[in-house]
Amino acid sequence: VLHPVTMGLLLQSLLLLLGCCLRPATAFPKGCYPSEEEGLKTFRCSNARLTEIPRDIPNDTNKLYLDSNRIPFLPRDAFRDLPLLLELDLSHNAITSVESGAFRGLAEHLHSLDLSSNRLVSVSKDAFSNLKAKVNLSNNPWLCDCRLQELVRTVELVAGSSGGIVCDSSAQEEHVGKAFLQVIADTDFCNVYKKTTDIAMLVTMFGWFAMVISYLVYYVRQNQEDARRHLEYLKSLPSKQRHSEESSTISTVV
Prior knowledge:
The structure is a single chain. By secondary structure, this protein is an alpha/beta fold. It folds into two domains: 26-187, Ribonuclease Inhibitor (Leucine-rich repeat, LRR (right-handed beta-alpha superhelix)), CATH 3.80.10.10; 188-218. The protein is built from five helices and eleven strands, in the order αβββββββββαββααα. The chain has helices at residues 4-21, 146-154, 180-184, 189-235, 239-253; strands at 33-37, 40-44, 63-65, 73-74, 87-89, 97-98, 112-114, 134-136, 142-144, 156-157, 167-170. A seven-stranded mixed β-sheet has the order 1-2-3-5-7-8-10, covered by helices on one side. A two-stranded parallel sheet has the order 4-6. It has a two-stranded parallel ribbon with strand order 9-11. Residues 1-27 form the signal peptide. It comes from Cephalopterus ornatus (Amazonian umbrellabird). The chain crosses the membrane at residues 199-220. Keywords: Leucine-rich repeat, Membrane, Repeat, Signal, Transmembrane, Transmembrane helix.
C-alpha cells in the first residue's frame, strides 16, 4: 500500500501531465488575450510591451488593440491574415514608418484605424491606397510638406482629429506649431514644389542652350580666323599661284 504522501505526489504529477497535454496549441504573447465585446471578437494586446506585430492573432478577429506598446514600424502585409478586421488601434506606440502594403487585405472591412500618438514624420499616401477606414493621424511629429498634403487628401480623417495634425517641422518656420489644415488653407505645398521644380528645369535648359550658342559662336569665329589667315598666306604667294589658290579657297568656303 502506497503511503498517502506518495499518492499525493503521484496525483499531482498526473494533473500536471494532463495540464500540459490539454494546453491550447496557440500560445498568445504575454499580456494578450481574446475576448468578445458587443458580439464582436476582440483581441487585446494593450500595454503588453510588444516590439512587433504579434503572430497567431485569431484570423476571425474583428477588433484588434495594439495600443500603448513599443512597435517601431509597420511592415508590408502586417495584417494580411485578418480579413474580418473592423477596428485597429495602434495608438501610443513608437511607429516611425509605414511600409506600402502594410494594410493590404483590410480595404473591404476596416472602418477605423488609430495611428495617433506615434512618431510619424512622413508617410506616403500609397501606404493607405484603397483603404476606406477613418484614420486618426493626430499627435505625431509631422513634417508639413507636399507628401503630408497628399496623404491628408487621400485618407478620411476621424471627425475632430484634424486639429491634432500639427506641423512639428516645415521648410517655412512660420508654419511650425500650427495645425496643418490651417496652414494648407493658405499654402499649397505641392504647387510650391512644382513651381520650384519648373524653375530649376528652366535654369538647366537655359544653361545648356547658352553652352550650345557659345560653342557655335566660337566655332564660326575660329573658322573665320582660319580663313583670314589662309587668305593672307595666299597674298604672299606669286600672282599665278595665288590666283589658283584663291579660286580653290573661295570654292571651298562657298
